[in-house]
Task: structure prediction
Amino acid sequence: EAQVTQNPRYLITVTGKKLTVTCSQNMNHEYMSWYRQDPGLGLRQIYYSMNVEVTDKGDVPEGYKVSRKEKRNFPLILESPSPNQTSLYFCASSLRGRHNEQFFGPGTRLTVL
Amino acid sequence: QKEVEQNSGPLSVPEGAIASLNCTYSDRGSQSFFWYRQYSGKSPELIMFIYSNGDKEDGRFTAQLNKASQYVSLLIRDSQPSDSATYLCAGDDPGGYNKLIFGAGTRLAVHP
Result:
């Protein structure tokens, strides 16, 4: 089954404790992206990747890191989480091109205390 | 600042009626527009996409695009309670690689 998976689905952590949210897709998509979703603000792009070893900042990259060592995986790293990073996070992937659908993972609900 | 604007709702319609969801976008260079449906706590799923002026129909859903007015809409005919969800409008960012700009979403409530 074609899908995007994320782990963990739920995470409660404390300020400053490094964490990684994994994302994996099995559709051989070149493009992958991370979003956060907050009430009233919609989906905002954190980082994206056009292919292996090619990443760039989105609209809200502060406090986040990413890597793309393999085509299928695109982990999101919070080196020192803070309470304002409490949010719902989605990973998405698509083929290249402006007309292509982005497929979303199931989401990770993160709470930073 | 490139924006996609939607009325947050809630839009409340009776079962069987037509629901009309609208959005406007600020960047005339945007070419492709997507409507995603999102149930509470779930991930967005694609309903329709459109990139040509005019209407595009798929079952009970019709997407409409008017590039001159920078306006996109989604009509849902014969609305069902299962259509109750938040609908996200997104346009591609001409300056960004594969990037989508999302509106904040319109919450639709279909009541029996």
In short: Chain A touches chain B at residues 31, 33, 35, 40-45, 48, 50, 56, 58, 90, 94, 96-102, 104-107, 109 (CB under 8 Å). DSSP finds no helices and eleven strands in chain A. The two ends of chain A are 36 Å apart (CA to CA).
